[in-house]
Every structure is written in structure tokens, then in C-alpha cells.
Design goal:
71% of the residues lie in helices and 0% in strands. The chain is built from 2 helices and no strands. It starts with a helix and ends in a 30-residue tail after the last helix.
């Protein structure tokens, strides 16, 4: 009986891990799409620049967006690995609160649809 109980637990854990991997893969695919959109926007901004000031503004805007995305990625990676560790430990992740801080105001750096979709 103990073996059957262990088998059910192992299958349940594998199912949970597979679902978590699939969800994380979808999130990172979306992140890659955001990265492509960011570089496309940067190329467009550079192409439409008419002066050195326009080029400098496009570059500084792009760098600011990249820094913000990198910070968000760091938070998401940390959260993703915590989730996976909880899955491996067999903890119920539905009961754990989301530890990510609330999003900062994006009034200065309006990302539109370019920000990563959070999970």
C-alpha cells in the first residue's frame, strides 16, 4: 500500500512540475517577444531620428527600458526558482503569497505593451 501511495504522490508531483515548466516556458516566450518588440522600436526610433539629440534620446530611452526589463527579469527569475523549489519540496504553492513587489509607476518610462506579463 505504501508503494501505491508513493506512486500517486510521485505522479502528482511530476504533473505539477510539468504544468509549472509549461507555464514558465510560455512566460519566457512572451518575454522574448517583448525583447523583439523593444529592439524593433529602438531601430524604428533610430531610423526616424533627424538629429544627434534624437539619436541620444532614442538610445537613452532604450537603455532605460533595458535596465527596467533586467530588474523585472531578476525578480521573475527569483520567483520562478522559488516556485520550482516549492514544487520539488512538495509544498502547496497555491497557499504561498506572491512575494513580488507591486509594479512601480511607469509614468516616466511608458512601456505600453512592452513590459513582461507577470505571472
Amino acid at each position: 500500500m505504501a508503494f501505491l501511495s508513493f506512486g500517486k504522490t510521485a505522479v502528482g508531483l511530476q504533473k505539477d512540475l510539468l504544468e509549472a515548466y509549461q507555464r514558465l516556458n510560455r512566460i519566457w516566450l512572451e518575454r522574448l517577444q517583448v525583447e523583439v518588440a523593444l529592439w524593433t522600436r529602438f531601430a524604428s526610433d533610430l531610423a526616424s531620428s533627424k538629429s544627434n539629440e534624437d539619436i541620444l534620446e532614442a538610445c537613452s530611452d532604450h537603455i532605460a527600458r533595458k535596465f527596467k526589463m533586467s530588474a523585472e527579469d531578476g525578480r521573475h527569475i527569483f520567483s520562478d526558482y522559488q516556485e520550482m523549489a516549492r514544487k520539488f519540496a512538495g509544498e502547496d504553492t497555491s497557499a504561498v503569497e506572491d512575494l513580488e513587489p507591486p509594479p512601480e509607476s511607469e509614468s516616466e518610462l511608458d512601456f505600453g505593451q512592452e513590459h513582461r506579463i507577470t505571472h
